[in-house]
Amino acid sequence: MRLNELRDNPGATKERKRVGRGIGSGKGKTGGRGVKGQKSRSGVAIKGFEGGQQPIHRRLPKRGFNNIFAKNFNEVNIGRLQKAIDEKKLSTSDTITVEALVEAGIVRRVLDGVRILGDGELKAKLVIKAAGASKSAIAAIEKAGGSVEILEAKPAVEEKK
């Protein structure tokens, strides 16, 4: 077999049907578009249009809002920290920060910080600096002999005096 002998399997590709080439072709006259009207023309974009009736996206009330001050935290369970320690990706002697978690591959990127959650079991004594932690996570870390320091969130907008 050579490169110039390569072929698709029989039936793998379908021939393109040339439309609008006379009535005898079976796809002439309207070219498969039906008859007349806006949709038979090219460049039609009428998504959401309901024939003049108020569209559903305008009939329904607006709801909720987008909080521009909301923080986006990475969430890490203590079980995941223990697994990383067992795999020698994290050291118990070092303080565990966001940068250390990124380096270990536990967190992909630094968002607004890391929030430690209490799912899983922790055996190692850890010193953690994080943006937040759940009560169960703090209890589990302190039970293992470690400590948690909650970092102050930086204000998004500096107020002028």
Helix/strand layout:
Layout: H1 56-59, E1 74-77, H2 78-86, E2 95-96, H3 98-104, E3 114-117, E4 127-130, E5 132-133, H4 135-143, E6 147-150
Parallel strand pairs: 1-3, 2-4, 3-5, 4-6
Quick overview of this protein structure:
This protein is an alpha/beta fold and 161 residues long. It has four helices and six strands; from the N terminus they run αβαβαβββαβ. It has a domain at 74-150: Ribosomal Protein L15, Chain: K, domain 2.
Notes on the protein architecture:
The protein is an alpha/beta fold. The chain has a domain at 74-150: Ribosomal Protein L15, Chain: K, domain 2, CATH 3.100.10.10. The chain has helices spanning 56-59, 78-86, 98-104, 135-143, and strands spanning 74-77, 95-96, 114-117, 127-130, 132-133, 147-150. The strands form 2 sheets. It has a 3-stranded parallel beta sheet. Strands 2-4-6 form a 3-stranded parallel beta sheet. It is elongated. The relative contact order is 0.11. The model has no long low-confidence stretch (mean pLDDT 90).
